[in-house]
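Following up on my earlier thread - several people asked me to post the actual chain instead of describing it. Fair enough. Here it is, all 460 residues.
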Amino acid sequence: MQTIPEPSKQVPVVAQADVVVCGGGPGGFAAAIAAARHGAQTVLIERYGFMGGLATAGLVAPILGHTASRSHMPIVEGLLREITERMHAINGAPTWEAALQEWGVRFDAEALKIVLDEMCAEAGVRLMLHSYVADVVVDGGAIAAVIVENKSGRQAVAGGIFVDGTGDADVAFRAGAPTTHGRPFDKRPESMGSFFHLAGFEPLSEARRQEVVEQVRQEMARGRFRFYNPGFLNANAYHTDHTAANMTRFGGDSDVAEDMTAAELSVRGEVWKLVRYLQQNVPEFRGVYVQQTSPQVGPRESRQIVGPYALTGDDVRAGSKFDDAVARGSWWIDIHCPRGETYPVHLCVVECPKQEECPFWASEHTRMLSRDQLHPPDGDWYDIPYRSLLSAGIGNLLSTGRCISATHEGMAGSRVMGTCVAIGQAAGTAAALATSAKVAPADLDVRRLRDALRADGQLV
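Reply from S.P.:
Thanks for posting it. Predicted structure:
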Protein backbone atom coordinates (compact mmCIF):
# COMPACT_ATOMS: atom_id res chain seq x y z
CA MET A 1 0.00 0.00 0.00
CA GLN A 2 1.26 3.46 -0.88
CA THR A 3 2.03 5.69 2.10
CA ILE A 4 1.92 9.45 2.41
CA PRO A 5 4.48 11.31 4.57
CA GLU A 6 2.82 12.79 7.66
CA PRO A 7 3.08 16.52 8.40
CA SER A 8 4.43 17.75 11.71
CA LYS A 9 2.83 16.01 14.69
CA GLN A 10 2.92 19.16 16.83
CA VAL A 11 -0.75 19.67 17.74
CA PRO A 12 -1.86 22.76 19.68
CA VAL A 13 -3.94 22.23 22.82
CA VAL A 14 -6.94 24.50 22.29
CA ALA A 15 -8.99 23.46 25.31
CA GLN A 16 -8.49 21.79 28.66
CA ALA A 17 -11.36 20.74 30.88
CA ASP A 18 -12.31 18.57 33.81
CA VAL A 19 -14.68 16.59 31.60
CA VAL A 20 -14.44 16.13 27.83
CA VAL A 21 -17.53 14.66 26.18
CA CYS A 22 -17.05 13.29 22.68
CA GLY A 23 -20.28 13.22 20.70
CA GLY A 24 -23.39 15.37 21.09
CA GLY A 25 -26.09 12.72 20.70
CA PRO A 26 -28.63 11.71 23.36
CA GLY A 27 -25.93 10.18 25.53
CA GLY A 28 -23.43 12.98 24.92
CA PHE A 29 -25.49 16.13 25.32
CA ALA A 30 -27.03 14.75 28.52
CA ALA A 31 -23.56 13.93 29.88
CA ALA A 32 -22.22 17.40 29.10
CA ILE A 33 -25.17 19.25 30.63
CA ALA A 34 -25.11 17.08 33.76
CA ALA A 35 -21.35 17.42 34.24
CA ALA A 36 -21.43 21.20 33.85
CA ARG A 37 -24.40 21.58 36.18
CA HIS A 38 -22.43 19.70 38.82
CA GLY A 39 -19.57 22.18 38.59
CA ALA A 40 -17.17 20.51 36.20
CA GLN A 41 -15.48 22.50 33.46
CA THR A 42 -16.92 20.71 30.45
CA VAL A 43 -16.16 20.60 26.74
CA LEU A 44 -18.51 18.91 24.26
CA ILE A 45 -17.09 17.92 20.87
CA GLU A 46 -19.61 17.33 18.06
CA ARG A 47 -18.97 16.67 14.38
CA TYR A 48 -22.12 18.41 13.13
CA GLY A 49 -23.18 22.04 13.58
CA PHE A 50 -25.88 21.00 16.04
CA MET A 51 -26.46 18.53 18.84
CA GLY A 52 -28.98 15.75 19.13
CA GLY A 53 -27.26 12.89 17.34
CA LEU A 54 -29.73 10.64 15.56
CA ALA A 55 -32.61 12.59 17.11
CA THR A 56 -31.67 15.47 14.82
CA ALA A 57 -29.10 14.19 12.31
CA GLY A 58 -31.13 11.00 11.87
CA LEU A 59 -34.64 12.48 12.22
CA VAL A 60 -35.33 9.52 14.51
CA ALA A 61 -38.62 9.97 16.34
CA PRO A 62 -40.17 9.43 18.77
CA ILE A 63 -37.84 9.20 21.77
CA LEU A 64 -38.43 5.68 23.11
CA GLY A 65 -37.92 4.03 26.47
CA HIS A 66 -39.42 6.74 28.69
CA THR A 67 -42.04 4.45 30.28
CA ALA A 68 -42.05 0.95 31.76
CA SER A 69 -42.65 -1.98 29.42
CA ARG A 70 -46.14 -1.78 27.90
CA SER A 71 -47.08 0.78 30.52
CA HIS A 72 -47.59 4.53 31.03
CA MET A 73 -45.44 4.63 34.17
CA PRO A 74 -42.35 6.85 33.74
CA ILE A 75 -38.96 5.23 34.24
CA VAL A 76 -36.87 8.12 32.84
CA GLU A 77 -37.35 11.70 33.98
CA GLY A 78 -34.55 14.13 34.90
CA LEU A 79 -33.08 15.78 31.81
CA LEU A 80 -35.45 14.00 29.41
CA ARG A 81 -38.48 15.43 31.16
CA GLU A 82 -36.93 18.90 31.25
CA ILE A 83 -36.07 18.77 27.56
CA THR A 84 -39.60 17.62 26.68
CA GLU A 85 -41.17 20.41 28.72
CA ARG A 86 -38.87 23.02 27.17
CA MET A 87 -39.72 21.78 23.67
CA HIS A 88 -43.41 21.88 24.55
CA ALA A 89 -43.06 25.54 25.54
CA ILE A 90 -42.07 26.37 21.93
CA ASN A 91 -44.61 24.02 20.28
CA GLY A 92 -42.03 21.31 19.62
CA ALA A 93 -43.35 18.42 21.75
CA PRO A 94 -46.39 17.41 23.81
CA THR A 95 -46.54 17.97 27.53
CA TRP A 96 -44.67 15.43 29.61
CA GLU A 97 -47.98 14.10 30.97
CA ALA A 98 -49.31 13.63 27.43
CA ALA A 99 -46.07 11.98 26.32
CA LEU A 100 -46.44 9.39 29.08
CA GLN A 101 -49.67 8.24 27.41
CA GLU A 102 -47.88 7.51 24.14
CA TRP A 103 -45.31 4.91 23.11
CA GLY A 104 -42.62 7.59 22.77
CA VAL A 105 -41.97 11.31 23.07
CA ARG A 106 -42.84 12.89 19.74
CA PHE A 107 -40.84 16.02 18.97
CA ASP A 108 -39.70 18.51 16.35
CA ALA A 109 -35.99 18.06 15.58
CA GLU A 110 -35.51 21.81 15.09
CA ALA A 111 -37.03 22.50 18.51
CA LEU A 112 -34.65 19.97 20.05
CA LYS A 113 -31.65 21.70 18.45
CA ILE A 114 -32.43 25.10 19.97
CA VAL A 115 -33.38 23.68 23.37
CA LEU A 116 -30.04 21.88 23.58
CA ASP A 117 -28.19 25.02 22.49
CA GLU A 118 -29.84 26.95 25.29
CA MET A 119 -29.37 24.30 27.97
CA CYS A 120 -25.66 23.91 27.18
CA ALA A 121 -25.17 27.67 27.23
CA GLU A 122 -26.99 28.00 30.56
CA ALA A 123 -24.92 25.19 32.11
CA GLY A 124 -21.64 26.64 30.87
CA VAL A 125 -20.71 23.83 28.47
CA ARG A 126 -18.02 24.86 26.00
CA LEU A 127 -19.11 23.60 22.58
CA MET A 128 -16.77 22.58 19.78
CA LEU A 129 -19.06 22.00 16.82
CA HIS A 130 -17.93 20.95 13.35
CA SER A 131 -15.14 19.01 15.05
CA TYR A 132 -14.41 15.34 14.44
CA VAL A 133 -12.58 13.15 16.95
CA ALA A 134 -9.71 11.75 14.89
CA ASP A 135 -7.35 10.25 17.45
CA VAL A 136 -6.62 9.79 21.14
CA VAL A 137 -3.45 10.44 23.12
CA VAL A 138 -2.88 7.91 25.90
CA ASP A 139 -0.30 8.40 28.62
CA GLY A 140 0.31 5.86 31.37
CA GLY A 141 -2.91 3.95 30.77
CA ALA A 142 -5.10 7.08 30.84
CA ILE A 143 -6.34 9.40 28.11
CA ALA A 144 -4.44 12.69 28.13
CA ALA A 145 -6.21 14.30 25.18
CA VAL A 146 -8.35 13.69 22.15
CA ILE A 147 -7.26 14.96 18.75
CA VAL A 148 -9.91 16.69 16.67
CA GLU A 149 -9.99 17.83 13.07
CA ASN A 150 -11.92 20.92 11.99
CA LYS A 151 -11.60 23.96 9.73
CA SER A 152 -8.92 25.31 12.06
CA GLY A 153 -6.79 22.23 11.47
CA ARG A 154 -5.72 19.49 13.85
CA GLN A 155 -6.18 20.38 17.52
CA ALA A 156 -5.91 18.69 20.91
CA VAL A 157 -8.44 18.84 23.73
CA ALA A 158 -6.96 17.79 27.07
CA GLY A 159 -8.96 16.71 30.07
CA GLY A 160 -9.24 14.80 33.27
CA ILE A 161 -12.16 12.45 32.53
CA PHE A 162 -13.40 11.59 29.04
CA VAL A 163 -16.90 10.46 28.10
CA ASP A 164 -17.28 8.43 24.91
CA GLY A 165 -20.62 9.36 23.38
CA THR A 166 -19.60 8.73 19.77
CA GLY A 167 -22.02 5.85 19.32
CA ASP A 168 -19.27 3.73 17.76
CA ALA A 169 -16.94 3.75 20.78
CA ASP A 170 -14.43 5.68 18.68
CA VAL A 171 -12.62 7.12 21.69
CA ALA A 172 -12.30 3.77 23.44
CA PHE A 173 -11.18 2.04 20.23
CA ARG A 174 -8.58 4.67 19.36
CA ALA A 175 -7.32 4.64 22.95
CA GLY A 176 -6.65 0.91 22.67
CA ALA A 177 -9.35 -0.04 25.18
CA PRO A 178 -10.98 -3.43 24.58
CA THR A 179 -14.19 -3.34 22.55
CA THR A 180 -16.59 -5.85 21.03
CA HIS A 181 -18.39 -5.54 17.72
CA GLY A 182 -21.84 -6.78 16.73
CA ARG A 183 -22.95 -10.31 17.41
CA PRO A 184 -20.31 -12.92 18.29
CA PHE A 185 -21.35 -15.23 15.43
CA ASP A 186 -20.00 -13.07 12.59
CA LYS A 187 -19.37 -9.61 14.14
CA ARG A 188 -22.30 -8.18 12.19
CA PRO A 189 -24.16 -5.32 13.91
CA GLU A 190 -27.84 -4.57 13.52
CA SER A 191 -28.76 -3.07 10.17
CA MET A 192 -28.91 0.69 9.66
CA GLY A 193 -31.78 2.84 8.41
CA SER A 194 -32.91 6.40 7.81
CA PHE A 195 -36.10 8.30 8.54
CA PHE A 196 -37.54 10.53 5.82
CA HIS A 197 -40.35 13.09 5.62
CA LEU A 198 -42.88 13.29 2.79
CA ALA A 199 -45.35 16.12 2.17
CA GLY A 200 -47.54 17.55 -0.61
CA PHE A 201 -50.12 14.77 -0.91
CA GLU A 202 -53.89 15.00 -0.57
CA PRO A 203 -55.70 14.06 2.65
CA LEU A 204 -56.73 10.40 2.81
CA SER A 205 -59.58 8.64 4.57
CA GLU A 206 -58.47 5.82 6.84
CA ALA A 207 -59.83 3.26 4.40
CA ARG A 208 -57.98 4.85 1.48
CA ARG A 209 -54.84 5.13 3.57
CA GLN A 210 -54.90 1.40 4.23
CA GLU A 211 -55.43 0.72 0.52
CA VAL A 212 -52.39 2.78 -0.49
CA VAL A 213 -50.18 1.23 2.19
CA GLU A 214 -51.28 -2.23 1.03
CA GLN A 215 -50.48 -1.24 -2.56
CA VAL A 216 -46.93 -0.36 -1.51
CA ARG A 217 -46.65 -3.56 0.53
CA GLN A 218 -47.56 -5.61 -2.53
CA GLU A 219 -44.87 -3.84 -4.55
CA MET A 220 -42.41 -4.63 -1.77
CA ALA A 221 -43.38 -8.29 -1.97
CA ARG A 222 -42.70 -8.17 -5.73
CA GLY A 223 -39.24 -6.78 -5.08
CA ARG A 224 -39.76 -3.24 -6.38
CA PHE A 225 -38.64 -1.64 -3.09
CA ARG A 226 -36.05 -2.66 -0.49
CA PHE A 227 -37.94 -1.60 2.65
CA TYR A 228 -38.61 -3.73 5.71
CA ASN A 229 -42.14 -2.39 6.26
CA PRO A 230 -44.66 -0.38 4.19
CA GLY A 231 -45.27 2.35 6.80
CA PHE A 232 -44.45 5.36 4.61
CA LEU A 233 -47.48 7.26 5.97
CA ASN A 234 -46.41 7.03 9.61
CA ALA A 235 -46.32 10.33 11.53
CA ASN A 236 -43.82 9.66 14.30
CA ALA A 237 -42.72 13.27 14.78
CA TYR A 238 -44.62 15.97 16.65
CA HIS A 239 -46.00 17.97 13.72
CA THR A 240 -48.39 16.08 11.48
CA ASP A 241 -48.22 18.11 8.26
CA HIS A 242 -45.74 15.55 6.92
CA THR A 243 -44.93 11.88 7.33
CA ALA A 244 -41.99 10.61 9.37
CA ALA A 245 -41.33 7.13 8.05
CA ASN A 246 -38.94 4.51 9.42
CA MET A 247 -38.76 1.79 6.77
CA THR A 248 -35.36 1.89 5.05
CA ARG A 249 -32.67 -0.69 5.72
CA PHE A 250 -29.03 -1.36 4.92
CA GLY A 251 -26.78 -4.04 6.35
CA GLY A 252 -23.31 -2.71 7.12
CA ASP A 253 -20.91 -1.27 9.69
CA SER A 254 -21.14 2.35 10.79
CA ASP A 255 -17.44 2.33 11.62
CA VAL A 256 -16.52 1.55 8.00
CA ALA A 257 -16.58 4.59 5.69
CA GLU A 258 -17.23 2.49 2.58
CA ASP A 259 -20.30 0.91 4.20
CA MET A 260 -21.62 4.28 5.32
CA THR A 261 -21.23 5.66 1.80
CA ALA A 262 -23.05 2.69 0.30
CA ALA A 263 -25.78 2.99 2.94
CA GLU A 264 -26.42 6.66 2.20
CA LEU A 265 -26.71 6.05 -1.53
CA SER A 266 -28.91 3.00 -1.06
CA VAL A 267 -31.48 4.42 1.33
CA ARG A 268 -31.71 7.77 -0.48
CA GLY A 269 -32.25 5.95 -3.76
CA GLU A 270 -35.01 3.81 -2.26
CA VAL A 271 -36.83 6.88 -0.89
CA TRP A 272 -36.86 8.50 -4.31
CA LYS A 273 -37.89 5.26 -5.97
CA LEU A 274 -40.94 5.25 -3.68
CA VAL A 275 -41.73 8.93 -4.35
CA ARG A 276 -41.56 8.49 -8.12
CA TYR A 277 -43.80 5.44 -7.89
CA LEU A 278 -46.38 7.32 -5.81
CA GLN A 279 -46.33 10.31 -8.17
CA GLN A 280 -47.00 8.08 -11.16
CA ASN A 281 -49.37 5.49 -9.69
CA VAL A 282 -51.42 7.02 -6.85
CA PRO A 283 -53.64 9.99 -7.83
CA GLU A 284 -53.58 11.59 -4.38
CA PHE A 285 -49.75 11.63 -4.48
CA ARG A 286 -49.13 13.38 -7.79
CA GLY A 287 -47.74 16.35 -5.87
CA VAL A 288 -45.86 14.43 -3.19
CA TYR A 289 -42.30 15.54 -2.53
CA VAL A 290 -39.43 14.68 -0.24
CA GLN A 291 -39.60 17.33 2.45
CA GLN A 292 -36.44 16.07 4.16
CA THR A 293 -34.08 13.12 4.37
CA SER A 294 -31.84 12.72 7.37
CA PRO A 295 -28.32 14.20 7.20
CA GLN A 296 -26.93 10.75 7.93
CA VAL A 297 -28.05 7.16 7.84
CA GLY A 298 -28.85 5.87 11.33
CA PRO A 299 -26.72 3.10 12.86
CA ARG A 300 -28.25 0.94 15.57
CA GLU A 301 -25.13 -0.88 16.75
CA SER A 302 -21.41 -1.17 16.14
CA ARG A 303 -18.67 -1.27 18.78
CA GLN A 304 -19.26 -1.66 22.52
CA ILE A 305 -16.72 -0.94 25.21
CA VAL A 306 -15.75 -3.83 27.45
CA GLY A 307 -16.60 -2.93 31.04
CA PRO A 308 -16.72 -4.76 34.35
CA TYR A 309 -20.27 -5.81 33.48
CA ALA A 310 -22.03 -6.28 30.12
CA LEU A 311 -25.79 -5.79 30.03
CA THR A 312 -27.35 -8.93 28.51
CA GLY A 313 -30.50 -9.96 26.73
CA ASP A 314 -31.40 -12.03 29.78
CA ASP A 315 -31.21 -8.82 31.86
CA VAL A 316 -33.62 -7.15 29.42
CA ARG A 317 -36.10 -10.03 29.48
CA ALA A 318 -35.94 -10.55 33.25
CA GLY A 319 -36.12 -6.87 34.18
CA SER A 320 -32.86 -7.27 36.10
CA LYS A 321 -32.11 -4.90 38.98
CA PHE A 322 -28.63 -3.92 40.21
CA ASP A 323 -27.27 -2.30 43.37
CA ASP A 324 -25.25 0.10 41.23
CA ALA A 325 -28.14 1.06 38.94
CA VAL A 326 -27.80 4.53 37.40
CA ALA A 327 -30.51 4.41 34.70
CA ARG A 328 -33.52 2.39 33.65
CA GLY A 329 -34.47 0.83 30.32
CA SER A 330 -37.62 -0.81 29.03
CA TRP A 331 -37.11 -1.27 25.30
CA TRP A 332 -37.05 -4.87 24.18
CA ILE A 333 -34.60 -7.08 22.25
CA ASP A 334 -35.29 -5.33 18.95
CA ILE A 335 -32.63 -6.78 16.63
CA HIS A 336 -33.03 -5.48 13.07
CA CYS A 337 -31.72 -8.15 10.70
CA PRO A 338 -27.89 -7.76 10.69
CA ARG A 339 -27.75 -9.11 7.13
CA GLY A 340 -29.85 -6.20 5.92
CA GLU A 341 -32.63 -8.43 4.62
CA THR A 342 -35.81 -6.54 3.77
CA TYR A 343 -39.51 -7.42 3.56
CA PRO A 344 -40.79 -9.86 4.71
CA VAL A 345 -37.80 -10.05 7.09
CA HIS A 346 -37.84 -7.66 10.05
CA LEU A 347 -36.40 -8.97 13.33
CA CYS A 348 -33.71 -11.56 13.95
CA VAL A 349 -36.00 -14.14 15.59
CA VAL A 350 -36.59 -17.85 15.23
CA GLU A 351 -39.67 -17.14 13.06
CA CYS A 352 -37.49 -15.45 10.39
CA PRO A 353 -38.94 -16.22 6.92
CA LYS A 354 -35.46 -16.88 5.50
CA GLN A 355 -34.62 -19.66 7.98
CA GLU A 356 -32.06 -22.04 6.38
CA GLU A 357 -31.12 -19.39 3.79
CA CYS A 358 -29.49 -17.44 6.63
CA PRO A 359 -26.23 -18.93 7.98
CA PHE A 360 -26.92 -17.46 11.43
CA TRP A 361 -30.38 -19.04 11.61
CA ALA A 362 -29.08 -22.37 10.31
CA SER A 363 -26.45 -22.46 13.05
CA GLU A 364 -28.24 -20.82 15.96
CA HIS A 365 -32.00 -21.33 15.58
CA THR A 366 -32.24 -23.79 18.47
CA ARG A 367 -30.99 -20.98 20.75
CA MET A 368 -32.82 -18.07 19.11
CA LEU A 369 -35.72 -16.29 20.77
CA SER A 370 -39.28 -16.13 19.55
CA ARG A 371 -41.17 -12.86 19.05
CA ASP A 372 -43.09 -13.40 22.28
CA GLN A 373 -39.86 -13.75 24.32
CA LEU A 374 -38.28 -10.36 23.61
CA HIS A 375 -39.86 -8.02 26.17
CA PRO A 376 -39.26 -7.20 29.82
CA PRO A 377 -42.16 -8.12 32.11
CA ASP A 378 -45.19 -5.87 31.63
CA GLY A 379 -45.05 -2.76 33.80
CA ASP A 380 -41.38 -3.37 34.63
CA TRP A 381 -37.92 -2.23 33.53
CA TYR A 382 -34.29 -3.33 33.69
CA ASP A 383 -31.52 -1.37 35.35
CA ILE A 384 -28.40 -0.08 33.63
CA PRO A 385 -25.55 -0.73 36.11
CA TYR A 386 -22.79 1.82 36.57
CA ARG A 387 -20.27 -0.94 35.85
CA SER A 388 -21.51 -0.97 32.23
CA LEU A 389 -20.36 2.64 31.79
CA LEU A 390 -16.77 1.93 32.86
CA SER A 391 -13.91 0.86 30.62
CA ALA A 392 -11.92 -2.22 31.57
CA GLY A 393 -8.86 -0.77 29.85
CA ILE A 394 -8.78 3.00 30.41
CA GLY A 395 -9.24 4.31 33.94
CA ASN A 396 -10.43 7.85 33.12
CA LEU A 397 -12.94 6.84 30.44
CA LEU A 398 -16.72 6.54 30.77
CA SER A 399 -19.08 5.52 27.99
CA THR A 400 -22.63 6.59 27.28
CA GLY A 401 -25.39 6.01 24.77
CA ARG A 402 -25.19 3.02 22.49
CA CYS A 403 -21.53 2.15 23.11
CA ILE A 404 -21.81 1.08 26.77
CA SER A 405 -20.73 -2.41 27.79
CA ALA A 406 -23.49 -4.71 26.55
CA THR A 407 -23.98 -7.86 24.54
CA HIS A 408 -25.59 -7.83 21.11
CA GLU A 409 -28.96 -8.62 22.70
CA GLY A 410 -28.51 -6.21 25.59
CA MET A 411 -27.67 -3.35 23.26
CA ALA A 412 -30.75 -4.10 21.15
CA GLY A 413 -32.79 -2.93 24.13
CA SER A 414 -30.68 -0.21 25.70
CA ARG A 415 -29.82 1.64 22.45
CA VAL A 416 -33.03 3.70 22.24
CA MET A 417 -32.83 7.44 22.84
CA GLY A 418 -34.75 7.75 26.11
CA THR A 419 -32.47 5.22 27.74
CA CYS A 420 -29.41 6.92 26.21
CA VAL A 421 -30.40 10.28 27.72
CA ALA A 422 -30.70 8.64 31.15
CA ILE A 423 -27.32 6.92 30.74
CA GLY A 424 -25.79 10.20 29.61
CA GLN A 425 -27.08 12.06 32.66
CA ALA A 426 -25.54 9.36 34.84
CA ALA A 427 -22.19 9.44 33.00
CA GLY A 428 -21.89 13.22 33.19
CA THR A 429 -22.88 13.33 36.82
CA ALA A 430 -20.38 10.57 37.63
CA ALA A 431 -17.60 12.39 35.78
CA ALA A 432 -18.24 15.60 37.71
CA LEU A 433 -18.46 13.86 41.07
CA ALA A 434 -15.29 11.88 40.40
CA THR A 435 -13.52 15.10 39.44
CA SER A 436 -14.67 16.79 42.65
CA ALA A 437 -13.63 13.81 44.77
CA LYS A 438 -10.32 13.46 42.90
CA VAL A 439 -10.93 9.77 42.24
CA ALA A 440 -11.10 7.63 39.13
CA PRO A 441 -14.63 6.90 37.87
CA ALA A 442 -14.33 3.27 39.01
CA ASP A 443 -13.59 4.42 42.57
CA LEU A 444 -16.57 6.75 42.84
CA ASP A 445 -19.03 5.96 45.64
CA VAL A 446 -22.04 4.80 43.62
CA ARG A 447 -24.38 5.59 46.51
CA ARG A 448 -23.34 9.23 46.21
CA LEU A 449 -23.95 9.11 42.45
CA ARG A 450 -27.40 7.59 42.87
CA ASP A 451 -28.31 10.22 45.47
CA ALA A 452 -27.22 13.00 43.12
CA LEU A 453 -29.26 11.56 40.24
CA ARG A 454 -32.37 11.33 42.42
CA ALA A 455 -31.86 14.92 43.59
CA ASP A 456 -31.79 15.94 39.90
CA GLY A 457 -35.13 14.24 39.25
CA GLN A 458 -33.84 11.04 37.71
CA LEU A 459 -35.45 7.70 38.53
CA VAL A 460 -32.87 5.17 39.77
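The chain has three domains: 13-182+380-455, 195-293, 336-373. That should answer part of your original question.
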